[in-house]
Amino acid sequence: TTLRLAPGAELLVEKSDPGKRAFLKKGRLAVEIAKQDDPMILRTPDAETRVLGTRFMLSTEGGTTRLEVTEGRVRLAGIDVAPGEAAQTRRDGPPSKRSLYEERFLSLWMDLHDPARGYFSADGIPYHSVETFIIDAPDFGHLTTSETLSYWLWLEAMNGRLTGNWGPFGRAWKKMEETLIPSAARQPTNDLYNPAQPATFVPEADRLSDYPVSMDPTVSVGQDRLFAELRATYGSPDLYVMHWLCDVDDFYGFGKREFVNTFQRGPRESVWKTIPHPSTETFAWGGPQGYLDLFLKNENHVQQWRFTGAPDADARAIQAAYWAATWARAQGKDPAALLPLRQAAKMGDALRYALHDKYFKTQHHLIGWSQGWGGSLERTNGWAWRGGSSHAHFGYQNPVAAWALVNEPLLRPDSPGAAADWAASLARQVEFYRWLQSEDGAIAGGATASVNGRYEAIPDGTPTFHGLAFVDHPVFLDPPSNEWFGWQAWSMGRLAQYASLANDPGARAVVDKWAAWARKVVKLKADGTYSVPSTLRWSGRPGAGLRVTPVDETQDVGVAAALARALIAHGSAESRALARELLDRMWLQYRDDLGVSNPEPRADYSKIHEKVELPPDWRGGVKPGATFLDLRPNYRKDPELARVEQSLRSGKPPVFRYHRFWAQVEVALANAEFSRSGK
């Protein structure tokens, strides 16, 4: 028998009479009770439970006692609670009972919206994480990203499904527009764009020391056929997609709620080597030419704006809108009257830029790594540019969004060419998964239309996909972009949803093989914990011994929950059973006062003192030898820095329990989807 107290909980062990007895004065308690001859009695200030052998969680707060049972049966305040059920007692009302997994979703939804828990800014923008000292792709916790906003939409879609309240979804979409979709004033010179010459070619460099690089007008570029169609359809030259990164509270010093960017310098630019800079360049910060001359050689830079979209996030927002419409319709409601579906359709229209090569040399039909657009701030001799992405990662593909943009009338974009583009993309994405599936079942990295970002010849022996060269780690090499197991869970969850929606046997075969592999690499341990792969190592190529090996493991709650969702979407008895084990073990082990979190050692935080490569003659007010921390001086005010420094001096990695917004939503959604998947 094991009783695990959450931090801050108080438990009084009482005298046996004749069975074991204890009093939970406050807080949360996870319980695994071996079979007892006499009932074990656990009391709270408001209720009493009687158990003979089971697994459950008991908590008490503010006159409410909550019981969640995962195994066995427990009696609480006179009502029997079965596995998969949750019960609650209140001092001022009768006890109640509902689905355990729906109860988990609703409790996390309440946590995420509770101002005291810190998930949102004072003006209602969700942060990347509650904690400030966190260095992921966004390198500070109180930034926000298009990923975060898209997950918020997913959360509110599921809340609407369970509660029938669709107002929060609409408000989340509106906040997303206000926060991350550039207004007309922020992208003022789109009307000066020449689609016959979308942009001047800029080569990607292999090393950070090769930057800044020079434009090369001798390299031919294609023509942008989307611009005229979108402008005619919507009466505006502006794009309705999200920029990926926003500084909510002015951490970098460029202004509150300013669009910012970091990654700009090729495949070996890890987060530790990035240089934060404003997306609207007025030369108010940095050197005489702002930050522009760090990346691009030019003696006569002009003030300009430039934005970068992360297409997987926009596609996730569309996917969430599709499910919101489906669930609202199932409730007998009119989705068109309740939800911002025409805005989602308009986003899908603009997202077609991601289906093209960066310089429009080809339309590869896959969802690329990025899409970009920008222009001068001044209209005299003004200009604008646009681009797609030459590089496609399997983890960015979203066949559900593509299917919805073709088949859901309320989400079908208005442009005449949109349906054909997304139909072609859907077919190409499913084929891409098949091509990249390893002998083991996992999915390999991706492909590129521009070898090394310079349109070099495809090396002999390199497998190709509709003219694209295979790349084991598209876009980034530090760390390699397809070593993270999370991509498997994220992307294959979408393919599994699509396979069921469309009854596509080809997609189903890929998912079946992947799910069999995924079930093999999860470990359920005797102590009630679990592990999933963290890092993957790849060998071979498509059609030539493509294999994968997990090399280490993690308890990461976001990744584990995403995996559970993929398994739930797969839907076999074996997959559902493993998903349930992951969800139950995660909840019992890692539920806390803010949400769900696991201990996370961060040995990589030693890199905060590594030097960032800068051109030796750059005049930006940053001294030679500047480090990651020097470029983010506000981190020196963070109270966690002292603990990080102390851990590093001791030779031990600092350990955090992070509450990333996306991870909390993954946990919430996985529980809700498990509850509803059998109905």
Labels describing this entry:
679 residues, 15 helices, globular, Jelly Rolls, 11-stranded mixed β-sheet
> On the 0-100 scale, what is the average pLDDT?
96
Major sheet attributes: 11 strands, mixed
What amount of the residues lies in strands? 15-25%
What is the number of beta strands?
28
**Second-tier CATH architecture of the domain at 2-96:** Sandwich
Structure classification? alpha+beta
CATH class of the domain at 2-96: Mainly Beta
Distance between the first and last residues' Cα: 34 Å
- Low-confidence stretches are none
Number of helices: 15
* Oligomeric state as shown: single chain
Helix coverage percent of residues?
A: 25-40%
Shape: globular
Return Rg in Å: 26 Å
CATH topology of the domain at 2-96: Jelly Rolls
Structure description:
By secondary structure, the chain is an alpha+beta fold. Among the domains are: 2-96, Jelly Rolls (Sandwich), CATH 2.60.120; 612-656, no CATH class. Strands 1, 2, 3, 4, 5, 6, 7, 8, 9, 10 and 11 form an eleven-stranded mixed β-sheet that branches. Helix 2 packs antiparallel against helix 3 (167-180) and helix 12 (557-570) runs parallel beside helix 15 (661-677). The protein is globular and about 90 Å long. The protein starts with a strand and ends with a helix.
